[in-house]
Specification:
This protein is of the alpha/beta class. It contains nine helices and six strands; from the N terminus they run H-H-H-E-H-E-H-H-E-E-H-E-H-E-H.
């Protein structure tokens, strides 16, 4: 089955044939016909299509897509060009500036990070317009947990960046000692002052990659 169009299809082949996944796809196909669902259907697996399995250097975990019109583009924390920066993304950029001295970007589109090897993975891959967490527990979490587990099996070292309690709950899936886990509070305005600011996830990621003779990630947003 070819859903992504790269090595992920081979890695996830077994998942595609499981009953829970087939039911999830059936539910989603019906929902897209009847309601306003985000992101656009062809962007549901965009995180995987932009960051192939062998290219994954870092994983940033989000919860579910933005639920406002025109915001979600299939990548965790990322919004389309021309959309106002969400509060969490503004704080991510503040930390990026503080950590690496990168100028705060005007765009919230993180496609360039995905192309650098950052898997920007939401745990839930779809949402109904104006209804946050509306597609929680329809099956996506089982699928994205499988994705995390597959990345965990990689022989090349990967950095897992876990922001907030929800992302930290996935730590149990990361058992391979080759990998690095970076944890902090969530970048949301409600929790950013409790450990997110000053956590330096970007420089820590590149220090780890360099130590393992892997190319560092260019975190400039362009």
């Amino acid at each position: 089955m070819y859903l992504v169009g790269n090595k992920w299809d081979e890695v996830l082949e077994e998942e595609y044939h499981k009953e829970y996944f087939i039911k999830t796809i059936q539910y989603i196909n019906k929902a897209y016909k009847e309601k306003n669902i985000f992101p656009p259907k062809n962007y549901i697996l965009r995180a995987l299509s932009l960051t192939d399995y062998d290219e994954v250097k870092a994983v940033i975990l989000g919860q579910d897509p933005y639920h406002g019109l025109g915001e979600a583009n299939g990548l965790a924390f990322s919004v389309n060009n021309g959309i106002n920066l969400p509060p969490s993304l503004k704080n991510i950029y503040k930390e990026l500036n503080n950590d690496l001295g990168i100028e705060i970007p005007n765009t919230g589109d993180l496609t360039c990070w995905a192309k650098e090897g950052v898997l920007l993975l939401n745990s839930v891959l779809t949402v109904e317009k104006d209804k946050p967490a509306s597609h929680k527990n329809i099956g996506w979490e089982t699928f994205t947990d499988a994705i995390i587990s597959k990345v965990n099996k990689k022989n090349t070292p990967v950095v897992f960046i876990l922001w907030g309690n929800f992302a930290k709950s996935k730590k149990k899936l990361i058992t391979n000692p080759k990998h690095l886990v970076i944890e902090s509070s969530h970048p949301s305005p409600f929790s950013c002052n409790y450990g997110f600011f000053g956590s330096k996830p970007f420089s820590k990621t590149n220090t780890f990659l360099k130590k393992n003779n892997l190319k560092e990630i260019d975190f400039n947003v362009k």
